[in-house]
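Archive record
______________

***
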Amino acid sequence: MLEVKTISVEDTYEIRHRILRPHQSIEQCKYKEDHAEGSFHLGVFYDGTLISIASFSPQSQPLLTEASAYRLRGMATLEGYRDQKAGSTLIKHAEHKLAESGVQAVWCNARHHVKGYYAKLGWKELGEPFDIPGIGNHIVMYKTLRTSR
């Protein structure tokens, strides 16, 4: 059974490093936004084991017109659990939480090879693809949220 919980930023580092940035040090897996006011980190647990993580921070995106936006960063799921729907469960949980607090949009710099994953969750591409040196091709993706306010 999957369970989404708020976790500490420190709980994200091992999976960030292992899945997203194995060629970098743990220190390079720490983002400046991790401790920003309003930031939060979610984890999905399967039978008590942390299998998927993501971080969210208040951050505008110049290409978005929505006044209130959060950035998704460091989304990763352990290889052996990718068919469990942990990532989509986490994203849906975060979207609901953000919408309930009045956030109008959520966005990320998606790696090019996973843009279809986000599209299946209702996210849209924005702007042109770009390269992050040492990491690869990305595209900005976003979703407008239905706020309750």
Remarks:
- The chain has a mean pLDDT of 93.
- Residues 86-100 form the longest helix (15 residues).
